[in-house]
Amino acid sequence: MRWTGAHLELLDQRRLPDEIVYLACHNAEEVAGAIREMVVRGAPAIGCAAAFGYALAARAGDDLERAAALLAASRPTAVNLFWAIARMRATRGDEAAQAEALAIYAEDIAANKALGAHGTALIPEGARIMTHCNAGALATAGHGTALGIVRSAHAAGKRVAVIANETRPYLQGARLTAWEMLQEGIPVTLEADVAAGHLMSHGEVDLVLVGADRIAANGDVANKIGTYTLAVLARRHGLPFYVAAPCSTFDLALADGRAIPIEERPADEVTGFRSERWAPRGVAVRNPAFDVTPAELVSAIVCERGVIERPDRARIGALLG
Ligand code: MRU
Questions:
Q1: Cβ contacts of 195 within 8 Å, gap of 6 or more
Q2: The domain spanning residue 268 has which CATH number?
Q3: What's the gap in Å between 48 CA and the centre of ligand 1?
Q4: Is the distance from CB of 138 to CB of 167 less than 8 angstroms?
Q5: Of the candidates 228, 207, 238, which has an alpha carbon nearest to the alpha carbon of residue 119?
Q6: Ligand 1, residues at Cβ distance < 6 Å
Q7: Is the same domain home to 169 and 198?
Q8: 7-37 pLDDT, tens per residue?
Q9: Which end of the chain is more exposed for a tag (fewer CB within 10 A), N or C?
Q10: Which of 206, 213, 220, 251 is catalytic?
Q11: Which residues contact 15 (CB under 8 A, 6 or more apart)?
Q12: Is 256 known to be catalytic?
């Protein structure tokens, strides 16, 4: 995303990888719409976008409570959105709002670089890293979380290869992660989500590394639908299951993952894609966009303050305070 000083420009992720088009947002309403419609997605990225949306409202002298409510209603699961709006609501005045949005943006990049450095130590030479959804630069202000670790390890001279799950039904893995890795020259292989167990059972995966949308105080992790399945498979095959997320993704007010709101998305994302439909009209559909992986299946959470091995309430509390 780009802040011009006058408006926010968002790379339209709905059109990737075929087209690189930026969408200009001039007010909080347009930013909320862009988050809702998936122009911008990924937990830290929607937090940053919402911060700029609030800054636009402050500049225009709009009703700030209305702007905050509009932005907060755009998507329910990623806590970074609510965290960023709370920070913005504590500002007073147009200049302070713009400065805070820019700080949230810059801090996210710094956090991702720091967690990338911590996470590099967990990545063995030659690792084949399975990832799910897109937790890359596109999902953040820059560098990425799970893919930030991959980037940092690659930049440090480690030989790494990514196995990108396509991530049905919205295909963030096929469209976005595959694109990001190809852009960077990091080896990447795309697989259908349903092939994950097969690849693990044939010794083709060394570890699983994913991002997060919200982490409860006990270490339960909400992330893209299908993540829980991967964690169960990783445990079955004795593989490490790592989660990478900045501190802004922790929701210490929630005791465990049961209270995390799970977004249910439109049926047409499952019955087809874009203009194409393959399921019969009228079929009942469930489309939960996220699931919760219990902390007991998580080998470690990597954040900018360090690595939380076998996360639980005490270890998370000790690092995050
Ligand atoms: O529905 P999306 O594409 O916003 O979901 C994104 C994810 O689940 C990511 O893994 C998560 O936000 C971490 S992004 C650094």
A1: none
A2: 3.40.50.10470
A3: 14
A4: no
A5: 207
A6: 41-44, 78, 133, 135, 139-140, 145, 172, 211-213, 223-224, 289
A7: yes
A8: 999 999 999 999 999 999 999 999 999 999 9
A9: C
A10: 213
A11: 21
A12: no
